[in-house]
Design brief:
The complex is a heterodimer of chains A (412) and B (150). Chain A is mainly β. Chain A is 8% helix and 58% strand. The longest helix of chain A is centred in the first third of the chain and has 21 residues, at 2-22. Chain B has one domain (2-146). Chain B is 57% helix and 0% strand. The two termini of chain B are 24 Å apart. The chains are: A mainly beta (412), B mainly alpha (150). At the A-B interface, loops of A face α6 and α7 of B.
């Protein structure tokens, strides 16, 4: 039985590699990136990461393609007392077979599919946005599209997956001997109606994840996300969304999140753009539990607050004063939504008062410059500071948290 | 549709006074499923003012070879891959390109450059042969990128 399996696998791999090798039109490349993050919060620290990302693209006809990518990463973390080096990390990047079928349900129908290690994301980017090992399919008919996908997250790197739904996830995330994300499967289903009302699209997505970890507490969650986005004239755009989360970990629970964006763009005036953004996620109180998306992300750049028990309001200005150069600045005000203690991971040296009363957590101004030096070479500099509220949340000796980042990318 | 594409792109070129090829040539080019080096040479070299429009495809291909913008060993009747067409366009219009194109001005990096500039759009294969409509559309986008329509 085992021999037969190996023989089948060998035959499959032989056919596969022959097919790839015989495809005369393969394309390949290498991307090199540098990410340096300098943090100062009473004490300094530096995170240095360099990545080499190699990729191969093999078209099969005009409608199908195979894309394979892998990465090497070096990472060093330094501060005034210790340094930690991870000299190498090798992993599989986006690797998928994708294709499309046009016109099989009428002239305006398009069916797209993708199988492998694929990228998935929800409308708001607040529930899920990462690679999964699975599939994705989408059928578009005129101005209507329906899409679905499913996959396994347990073979992706935990730092990328950022699966932090329950305490077991947190324990595994903090355990340096664990590489992979917790064993969870996920699925999504959604539809979108384009131009249902003139200039406006509406849609609904449903996401769910099932905890396969046999040890510890099993936490299963589902998310329902209605959304809309629209435009008024050529200059104004807006979008809104909300998420209702339902979960079970021995008992049922629920939480909610919502957000919206308004943007004014005036391309004629040095590409000027102003964006207002609001995002809110529930915390634990008598009605809701803390919002726990499938992939948890930091909500602002400097302070590491997760998207849970938080209200973010921000205003962003950007412009392109020179060709290939974009500058921007953002001001973000953060509030907690309950009187629970704010996330302890957000600020490393700030101390939460024993008695807190207010909701305002702090203000974060940031600035950035992006320079696309050439089509294959780009630089990005950014910096900012988080000013904690030392009146009624943090103690008066809580320091400011500064951050400066330099990112560069070169595509060979 | 083909007439529409032709009229949009070429009317802009005509207004700019850059060149005026015969309708017959462009009509025949737009109906080609696979354009060849002779057609591409004439189209691009005339559009970029490297060749007078009263020349023929044979003369255009000769010049393309002389300028070393055609891949080695190709014949005038050979179909043109997308990457090779990108190299011809970038060379003819004197486009600078990125770091890798500056160091290695090959079809490979010309294809990448034009893809990043959206001259090549959508799903594409660098070795796929170019059809007439795509050849004319890409040329029109080069005019946009270079600001030659103004």
């Amino acid at each position: 039985m085992k021999k037969r399996t190996i023989a089948r696998l060998s035959a499959f791999l032989t056919v596969f590699f022959l097919a790839v090798a015989s495809a005369a039109s393969l394309d390949f490349g290498l991307s090199l990136t540098n990410d340096s993050d300098y943090l100062y919060e009473g004490d300094w620290s530096l995170v240095q990461a360099n990545e080499a990302h190699v990729w191969l693209a093999v078209p099969f006809g005009s409608s199908n393609a195979l894309y394979v990518s892998g990465l090497y990463e070096f990472q060093g973390t330094f501060n005034s007392t210790t340094s930690t080096l991870v000299p190498w990390r090798l992993d599989l990047g986006r690797t998928e077979f994708e294709g499309l079928l046009e016109g099989f349900l009428g002239s305006s129908s398009v069916f797209r599919y993708s199988v492998g290690r694929i990228a998935v994301e929800d409308f708001s980017n607040r529930v899920m946005s990462n690679l999964i090992d699975g599939f994705r399919a989408e059928l578009s008919l005129n101005n209507f599209s329906i899409y679905l996908g499913a996959g396994y997250r347990g073979l992706t790197y935990k730092e990328d997956a950022r699966s932090l739904i329950d305490e077991d996830d947190q324990t595994a995330y903090e355990d340096s001997s664990v590489y992979f994300a917790p064993k969870r499967v996920m699925a999504n289903l959604g539809f979108r109606l384009n131009e249902l009302v003139q200039g406006h699209d509406f849609g609904l997505e449903a996401w769910g994840q099932y905890d396969l970890e046999s040890a510890g507490k099993q936490t299963h969650t589902a998310y329902v996300e209605p959304f809309f986005e629209g435009r008024f004239g050529r200059l104004f755009r807006w979008r809104g969304w909300c998420v209702a989360e339902f979960g079970y970990d021995g008992e049922f629970f629920k939480s909610v999140a919502a957000g919206g964006t308004v943007r004014l763009s005036i391309p004629e005036i040095i590409g000027f753009r102003v964006t207002g953004n609001v995002a809110w996620a529930s915390g634990t109180n008598e009605n809701f539990r803390y919002f726990a998306p499938i992939r948890q992300k930091q909500i602002v750049t400097v302070a590491a607050y997760p998207f849970s028990d938080i209200l973010l309001t921000s205003l962003d200005l950007s412009a392109s004063p020179l060709r290939r150069v974009t500058v921007g600045a953002t001001g973000s005000a953060l509030f907690r939504t309950t009187t629970n203690a704010p996330s302890s991971d957000a600020l490393t040296k700030a101390t939460v008062r024993t008695e807190t009363s207010g909701y305002y957590l702090g203000f974060e101004p940031t600035a950035r410059v992006a320079w696309q030096a050439a089509a294959d070479l780009s630089f990005h500099l950014s910096g900012g500071v988080f000013i904690p509220n030392t009146v009624d949340i943090y103690t008066t000796d809580s320091p400011l948290r500064w951050k400066a980042s330099i990112n560069a990318a070169f595509n060979l | 549709m083909k007439r529409y594409i032709f009229s949009c792109i070429f009317s802009a070129m005509l207004i700019a006074g850059t060149f005026a090829q015969s309708n017959a040539f462009v009509d025949s080019l737009l109906s080609e499923k696979k354009v060849n080096y002779g057609q591409v040479s004439y189209l691009v070299l005339v559009a970029s003012d490297n060749l007078s429009e009263d020349a023929d495809e044979g003369r255009a291909f000769e010049l393309l070879e002389t300028l070393n913008w055609a891949p080695k060993g190709v014949a005038i009747a050979d179909s043109v891959p997308l990457a090779a067409y990108a190299r011809i366009l970038m060379s003819a219009f004197g486009m600078k390109g990125g770091v890798m194109y500056t160091l290695f001005p090959s079809s490979r990096y010309a294809y990448r450059e034009l893809a990043s500039l959206q001259v090549i759009q959508g799903r594409s294969d660098p070795s796929a042969t170019v059809d007439g409509v795509a050849a004319v559309r890409m040329l029109g986008r080069i005019f946009d990128v270079m600001g030659l329509n103004k």
